[in-house]
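Recall that a protein's primary structure is simply its ordered list of amino acids. Everything else, from secondary elements to tertiary packing, is in principle encoded there. The following example makes that idea concrete.
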Amino acid sequence: MTGIAWGRLSDRVGRKPAILCGILGMLSSVLVFGFSNSIAMAMISRSCIGFLNGNVGILRTVVAELVPERELQPQAFSLLPLTWSIGSIAGPIIGGFLSEPAKNYPSIFPQGSFFDRHPFALPNIFTAAILFMALVFGTLFLEETLVGHRHRYDPGREVGKKIEAFLSSIFTWFVSTEPACKHSPIPEDEETAPLASQSNNYSSTTKSSSPAAHHTHHPHAPLPWSQVLTRQSIYNIVLYFLIAIHVVSYDSILPVFFSTKPPNAKDPIRLPFHIPGGFGLSTAQIGLIYSVNAIITMLLQFLLYPPIARHYGSVKLLAVSAAVYPFIYFVTPYTLPIASQKWLYASWSVIILLKSITGVFAFTSSTILITNTASSIRVLGTLNGFATSTAAMGRAVGPSSFGWMFSLGQRSRGWTTIPWVGLTIVAVMMWVWIPKLVEGDGVDGESSSESSESSDDEGEEENGVEVIDGERARGIEFVETEREEGRLEEELEGECKKVKGRRRRLSMGSVGEQ
């Protein structure tokens, strides 16, 4: 419900403030959830976790702004699902070990103690500690990526730069016998960076320390919705919605199918449509299957997807996933009548592998395509927020609907395949939209869709020079850097001649210092 509002806010005040507010809101809500003593309190705190945190869409926006080059997007956008997969594996393990500590570790947490009265407080306190670390690191080291806000004064980042310089000077002292500059420690990345990059970094520092720097850039009002939702954006968001419905629904009813008792003589299998029951697997066996799936997905996400996406493009990979998903859903119930244990394991190995591949292809490709349909960098946060909210709606509607279908099918006398056929139909619906997709060039290039181009033209007529896209933003930053460089050199000339000598030698291509 609030993903759009958080995305809109990030387009106005910047990505970093919105991300930090989201982390703070989640930290507070997690603590309340851990100390909940009623269902109502638990539901309210869980709702606040979603209400006060829109970081999923904003983080995708940050990745898009950090890596505007289309050929690098597959690898960059693979990092977020990769970290999510790692957290999905580690989180349940940690939560399981820390839940109900008085019951599991009575020697450490005796009966009647604080954690006995609040059995689920400890894992949530641990989560809050992780979020607090994220809040501190974000305040100190996260750079603002929104154009027009990158050079605004950031006190947290200024402290972070001093910490970086201090740690770099210690590292330099350990690895080098050359004495450091008496007045200003030189971070290692500044010693080896190109001259233009150093000028940009120094000018940013000088501007941020000046009182006038607070008024150099003004936040622009977000663009109208006609520029947020272009034709290509709508196509991709609808596809993202469909993917969220059938993928999350399948993941929700599959464990139930695994754990349901096998068919018996009273209600036998009657092909082709009546396949009652399930495999009767234990919780440990189901957990093992999902752990293997998560590991395979994590490896495919980082190793397989980037090179394939660079070669074939995101649209083709999304089309491949749309072709494979209906097959997976349709054949799932028909693995139950397989009598041979050997063929049963072989069939499910193939299904799990295909499910992992299609999941990586579908979600990552869809995220990249949505990002590249943005008509301007100023609508990127709103667009990703809208896509996140739409997908969340699909994740809410899908499992409840198909879970009800699964129960209805099990109670029926001939149509137990209802949920699987329904998932197949939803997956096939993706083909209504896939032929309309085009590979966008992203916010730094020209849009490859006519609708995006027309939206850009209308936006420029309405907003004039206020419309700042990637190329124009880089030009503005370069001009500002040039203006500040003269004053910067005057301030540093008498204080750090050695630094200027290094910069001059680096600009001439020198590879060593005396």
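Residues 270 and 414 are 8 Å apart (CA to CA). Residues 226-458 form a domain with the Growth Hormone; Chain: A; fold (CATH 1.20.1250).
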